[in-house]
Amino acid sequence: MDFSLPTELEAYLGELDAFIDAKIKPIEQRDDNIRFFDHRREDARTDWDRGGLPSEEWEALLHEVKRVADVAGHYRYPIPKEYGGQNGTNLGMAVIREHFARMGLGLHNDLQNEHSIVGNNVALLLMIAYGTEEQKRDWIDDLAGGRKGFAFGITEPDHGSDATHMETTATRDGDEWVINGEKTWNTGIHTAQYDMIMARTSGSAGDGHGITAFLVPTDTPGFDIVKFLWTFNMPTDHAHIRLTDVRVPHSAIFGGEGKGLQVVQHFFNENRIRQAASSLGAAQFCIDESIEYANQRKPFGKPLSVNQAIQFPLVELQTQCEMLRALIHKTAWSMDEYGAFSVSQQVSMCNYWANRLCCDAADRAMQVHGGLGYSRHKPFEHIYRHHRRYRITEGAEEIQMRRVAGYMFGFMDQKAPKGVDPTAA
Fold first, then answer.
1. Structure confidence by residue, pLDDT tens digits, 320-363
2. CATH code assigned to 150-254
3. What is the pLDDT of residues 264-312, one digit of tens each?
4. Domain 263-408: which topology?
5. 67: how many CB neighbours lie within 10 A of its CB?
6. What is the distance between the alpha carbons of residues 348 and 107, in angstroms, rounded to a whole number?
7. DSSP string, 30-69
8. How far apart are CA 424 and CA 421, in angstroms?
9. Is 105 helix (H, G, I), strand (E, B) or coil?
10. Which CATH architecture group holds 7-127?
């Protein structure tokens, strides 16, 4: 068995590093843009006069950097070549995401809002896989170029992780559908021109079938943002929205009538392995920084690093990183070889453990650095605040563990949902 990374992938990491040094870091240093990464001034990202939304300057900067990366050919790495991408692999995305996160926060990669110069453009991937020919003509170029996008209206206030008990409904009325209901944690809705609304069109509560995805313009009459939800990690772009007799044409259906959940499930595994790799990279960053500090800091006349109370917790964290890295690489490689749903159990293992590990590593880094680690002069409290949410939002860790148990005890089959191509990348 060969556990080495493909030579072309290692070479690409070097190319990305050179691109960051030559193109991204100068932008980061320009016009005091570093204020967005100076943790003492992190509130520069937040527009308090607009209720805690991301500041327009912050989001404009992220958009600019993505366009620079797109021109250079990096942003669309995982997208098929016919759409300007590189046919990037799941293994490649996992390795790149870990590599970026291990470098620390910066304009090259900031997971507070899923920003990266190598994009994980879920909306584009979904459009390529599920859009009608008309939708593809209308959407793909603008999605790839960042000129158009849609948010995801899935979670409901009273049901959380249970997407099958959906109270939002859509009723057919001639050539139109009338949608009523509420959604929460609708991320990115403050700028999205459309919202992908999941609504029950047939079946009963608890059924996986009978839920339909609709691409709903956010300026449609009856579409209202009720409030934005402030979180542990500001700024906020997570909204509670309400739909009251919202009318959309039949052509707004995305992915087929009654097949909405299958659309979302298609890329769950790809998203989760990439997010797990990012959490692993952030955990490794915290460990690396702690080791360096412990070697330099000399209270009572000797380095902190000679103390077993410092060594042993970091040894345990490093051991977990090494084991997790091997599992992530194997799982991502298996997804490339056998399909995204061939290793659902392992994806859940990687996801919940990586998110927990990152929080543990950030907490330990704060402890090693003492008061400085707890302060905003260091990034650890920011990393903890951000990655703590992934233990809930990327499929709560309890849901992931329940999923693993389902495979272990024979309650679930490790296969694609009905209607989803099991070999799809």
1. 999 999 999 999 999 999 988 889 999 999 999 999 999 999 99
2. 2.40.110.10
3. 887 788 889 999 999 999 999 999 999 999 999 999 999 999 999 999 9
4. Butyryl-CoA Dehydrogenase, subunit A; domain 3 (1.20.140)
5. 13
6. 29
7. GGGGGGGT-GGGGGGGEEGGGTSEEPHHHHHHHHHHHHHH
8. 5
9. coil
10. Orthogonal Bundle (1.10)
